[in-house]
């Protein structure tokens, strides 16, 4: 009977340790931040000017806030073709279930005006801080953060062929915009590189481990895209990449000696109970 008491107490102690270090969803399904891509008006760069039968290139940008997100669209071109102004510009959109990096138009006539070696520069940025009043997500020391999201770049603009030379990155950031280092010692994550050579669609999984000091400010994420689009990109479509199913979970990590201390308390309690018996 004494051994039954010992076994039960050990089991309770084991379950207590397990609950202390269980994984918690903080962004995505099962969390307070499960609807982070609300449908809203796209943010589109307005290219100035518009030459007659000649192309006007611009690398300006525009930024606007949509929900949790600060969205930036940069770069584009326009021209008056057959007495009508035709424009192609960077655009960032939230469609209710995903974040989209796009261009507004891949008009063949517009791209055809580009000379040999010339290209239109497009860039996109989306930054979100999980800082809703009453539900702010702050970094916690000694915590393992797991991040996953889906990427869809099937329409061609994320491809490295045809001279597009795209880049597409992810960063986990603190309240000051500083980038945290992932478990593989990388700060700016090359999304296209993680998916694999020539692969533009898949799920990205990342891990970050914090030590005894937590970064300041709320948890934030930053996606950045960039591409040079020339006449060789005719009819490749208007989508650069779509990001969906962003999930972040947090798991406490015991401090050195922490697990040993909890286990020692359990053993001490067992020995005391046996002596009293």
Describe the structure.
- Strands 1, 2, 3, 4, 5, 6, 7, 8, 9, 10, 11, 12 and 13 form a 13-stranded antiparallel β-sheet that branches.
- The model is unreliable at 1-19 and 257-276 (pLDDT under 50).
- It contains four helices and 13 strands.
- It has 277 residues and is of the alpha+beta class.
- The protein has two domains: 1-21 and 255-277; 23-253, no CATH class.
- This is PEP-CTERM sorting domain-containing protein.
- It comes from Prosthecobacter fluviatilis.
Observed structural traits:
277 residues; single chain; 13 strands; alpha+beta
Short description:
The protein has 277 residues and is of the alpha+beta class. It has helices at residues 2-20, 108-112, 191-195, 258-276, and strands spanning 24-27, 43-44, 56-66, 69-81, 84-94, 98-103, 120-129, 143-152, 167-173, 189-190, 201-209, 220-229, 239-252.
The computed structural class is alpha+beta
Strand content: 35-45%
- Kindly, what is the distance between the CA atoms of the first and last residues, rounded to a whole number of angstroms? 10 Å
Helix content: 10-25%
Q: Could you tell me the mean pLDDT?
A: 81
The best one-word shape is elongated
Structural domain tally: 2
Detail the poorly predicted runs. 1-19, 257-276
Report the radius of gyration as a whole number of Å. Answer: 25 Å
Main sheet characteristics: 13 strands, antiparallel
Order of helices and strands: HEEEEEEHEEEEHEEEH
Number of beta-strand segments: 13
Question: Number of helical runs?
Answer: 4
């Amino acid at each position: 009977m004494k051994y039954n008491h010992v076994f039960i107490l050990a089991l309770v102690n084991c379950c207590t340790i397990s609950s202390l270090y269980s994984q918690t969803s903080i962004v995505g399904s099962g969390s307070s931040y499960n609807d982070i891509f609300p449908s809203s008006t796209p943010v589109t760069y307005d290219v100035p000017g518009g030459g007659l039968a000649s192309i006007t290139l611009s690398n300006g940008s525009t930024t606007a806030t949509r929900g949790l997100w600060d969205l930036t669209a940069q770069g584009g071109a326009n021209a008056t073709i057959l007495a009508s102004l035709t424009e192609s510009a960077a655009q960032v959109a939230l469609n209710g279930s995903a974040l989209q990096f796009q261009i507004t138009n891949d008009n063949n006539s517009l791209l055809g005006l580009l000379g040999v070696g010339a290209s239109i520069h497009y860039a996109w940025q989306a930054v979100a801080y999980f800082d809703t009043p009453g539900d702010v997500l702050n970094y916690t020391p000694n915590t393992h953060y797991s991040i996953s999201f889906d990427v869809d770049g099937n329409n061609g603009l994320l491809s490295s062929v045809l001279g597009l030379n795209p880049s597409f990155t992810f960063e986990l950031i603190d309240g000051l915009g500083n980038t945290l280092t992932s478990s593989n010692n990388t700060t700016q994550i090359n999304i296209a590189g993680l998916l694999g050579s020539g692969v533009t669609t898949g799920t990205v999984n990342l891990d970050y481990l914090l030590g005894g000091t937590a970064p300041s400010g709320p948890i934030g994420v930053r996606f950045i895209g960039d591409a040079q689009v020339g006449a060789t990109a005719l009819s490749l479509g208007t989508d650069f990449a779509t990001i969906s199913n962003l999930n972040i979970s947090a798991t406490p990590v015991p401090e050195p000696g922490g697990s040993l201390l909890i286990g020692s308390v359990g053993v001490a309690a067992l020995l005391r109970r046996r002596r009293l018996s």
